[in-house]
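Entry:
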Amino acid sequence: MKKVVVTREMFDETIEYLEQHFSVVSNQTDRAIARDELIGMLRDADGIQSYSTDRIDNELLAQCPGIKAICNTAVGYNNIDVGACTRRGIMVTNTPGVLDNSVADYAIGLMIATCRRMSEGERYLRAGEWKSTFLKQTLGKDVHGATIGIVGFGRIGQAIAKRARGFDMNILYHTRNRVMQDVEQKLGVQYVGKEELLGQSDIVMLILPYTPETHHFIGAQELAMMKPSAVLINMARGGIVDDAALVEALRAGTIWSAGLDVYENEPRLNPGFIGLENAVLSPHIASASESTRYAMAMTAAKNLVAALSGEQPPNLVNPDYRNHLKG
């Protein structure tokens, strides 16, 4: 029987489903597994159900020659060296589609929390400092009628745009590949260049993939292009924003505030964020609704079953793997 390794805690139903097909080594205690131990677990494995915190690179794969499929329980897969997998004839899959609406909901929530200083207000109340209500107390920025610039306009970006319309927002977007005109008209959005979006937007929402080309897509230069009253929301991946430059911009008032669900080097984050009242910080939980995380876990498991059963998994991200199959 083929062996698969599930690197992080999953729903019991996910493990039971995999056990119908494979010998399963799982991490239901969700303990931190050292890299050497993980490699030991994978040496005789055929497949992996991985998570976004697992670093799967060429060094690991070289020591685990039996791996045929890596099924990430996430829509992003920047934790996996896809090129190395392709060269070794290994399938890589992700879980697109099932988390679009949950992430879009959370994006709107984080935007409102940041613009209206909700976290700051809660800290003020919990500290027992609320003694009265004042006219100029914790003044924030209106979301309704504001100009939002969405960077990245795939499924999640478009789902955010649909919600933004409900707030009568002026919606700009920028992406590598402009969407069709009928999509723009349906969503009521306008395509603009990067610099124009940064300069015109009251709220800049990042939801683009992390790649070598998008590393530090927002740095000191881009932050300086934004309005001093602007709000930056990062829903994408750590590394898209230069966190050190963002800390300095928030301290200096280059931009007004930021709402972040992702960070460079997470779960470690730049300690400069901690003392900033104008930063709303969230621990990478945009997809963390019960139904969505369950769907992600089961989608990854079904990808793994298909991949190791001789079928093409439905969410294959590297179809070129076939060109490198041995034999």
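The longest strand covers residues 147-151.
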